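Lab notebook, design round three. We kept the backbone fixed and only want residue identities now. Task for the bench partner: fill in a sequence for the structure below.
Input structure tokens:
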């Protein structure tokens, strides 16, 4: 039996009138009558009792209506939900990244986005770069923010931010901010870094390995906040993203080590699943991030 016949029956049963059903369905009254007759013949039952005032359901008609109503109500609710999504009156975006990336680079942009689209929920999922890649590929998040470079054929990479790395110390080693020091000389001091799996630690290893050196940090931490505190109390030289310690540097709580060479900038990228379309909400959020970034770069 054709679904259109059931739809005409459903509307007619709700309106209890062939003429009203025809107006709602944008068809003629004879077309409604013909469709109902087809359905009755197909099911071999009478669905309506006709009268001059309209129609009423037979016992069999009521039974059929009770069963098909939830289906058509679900379709109607689905249409309303799609309309909400198109108007960005609802929706959700899942974003993966590290705590420090969220705090220092993403939260201000989330605030401006939610000012524009308060009904869209932003869900944050913490993780290291390998964990974020795994979540993205498995469809657990829509967007990831990770330190570049990465190697993964299943994702699209969009350059987002350029950040700088540096070495900082507390007051105990503040003399290192007053004289030029080489990478080799830093091995004479305790080194503070993130754990082995982090992208920051991998970069630190690369910096030393390029000079034929091997670095073994004396202190390994899991957060920027702990790394900063360890440096403050004089536990050693901390390797960190400079943008994350600007406040401490300006207050004189930390000092930037004066290297005799320049450090290369790093990049944070936005990663998305290759070949998978965004939801409307995720697409809007992605474009919001890119637009704000372009505005900052043009200032």
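Proposed sequence:
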């Amino acid at each position: 039996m054709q679904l259109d016949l059931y739809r005409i029956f459903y509307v007619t049963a709700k309106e209890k009138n062939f003429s009203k059903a025809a107006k709602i369905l944008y068809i003629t009254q004879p077309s409604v009558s013909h469709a109902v007759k087809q359905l009755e013949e197909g099911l071999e039952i009478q669905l309506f009792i006709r009268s001059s005032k309209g129609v009423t359901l037979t016992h069999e008609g009521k039974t059929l209506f009770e069963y098909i109503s939830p289906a058509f109500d679900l379709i109607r609710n689905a249409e309303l939900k799609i309309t909400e999504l198109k108007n960005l009156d609802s929706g959700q975006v899942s974003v993966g990244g590290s705590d420090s990336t969220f705090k220092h680079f993403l939260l201000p942009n989330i605030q401006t986005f939610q000012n524009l689209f308060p009904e869209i929920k932003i869900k944050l999922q913490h993780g290291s770069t390998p964990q974020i890649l795994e979540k993205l590929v498995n469809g657990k998040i829509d967007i990831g923010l990770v330190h570049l470079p990465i190697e993964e054929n299943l994702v699209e990479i969009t350059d987002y931010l350029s950040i700088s790395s540096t070495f900082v110390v507390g007051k105990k080693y503040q003399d290192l901010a007053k004289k030029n020091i080489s990478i080799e000389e830093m091995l004479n001091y305790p080194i503070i870094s993130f754990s082995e799996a982090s992208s920051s630690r991998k970069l630190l290893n690369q910096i030393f390995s390029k000079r034929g050196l091997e670095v073994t940090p004396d202190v390994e931490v899991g957060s920027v906040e702990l790394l900063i505190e360890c440096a403050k109390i004089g536990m050693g030289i901390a390797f960190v993203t400079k943008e994350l310690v600007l406040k401490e540097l300006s207050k004189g709580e930390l000092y930037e080590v004066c290297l005799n060479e320049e450090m290369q900038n790093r990049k944070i990228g936005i990663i998305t699943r290759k070949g998978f379309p965004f939801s409307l909400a995720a697409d809007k959020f992605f474009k919001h991030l890119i637009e704000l970034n372009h505005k900052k770069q043009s200032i």
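Keep this in mind before ordering anything: The mean pLDDT is 91.
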